[in-house]
Design brief:
By secondary structure, the protein is mainly alpha-helical. It is 63% helix and 0% strand.
Length: 68
């Protein structure tokens, strides 16, 4: 179980480790949410809804998620 969690958080750790930290909690929350969203899109866990399923590109999915 622990190994699965570490694997899921690998991308977040890779992004945040080189940074010195966040001055505001809001900035940290937005950054981590974006990383999590990108991972969900890559894994196919993001509901595409009106975009026509798997035919949508990564950019289209990203813009749809930000517009929601």
């Amino acid at each position: 179980m622990n190994n699965l969690e570490e694997r899921d958080h690998r991308r977040v750790k890779q992004r945040i480790r080189p940074m010195l930290g966040f001055k505001r909690f809001d900035n940290a929350a937005v950054t981590i949410s974006g990383i999590e969203l990108a991972e969900k899109i890559k894994k196919g866990q993001f509901k595409t809804g009106k975009l026509g399923g798997c035919d949508a590109t990564m950019a289209e999915l990203w813009h749809a998620a930000l517009a929601a």
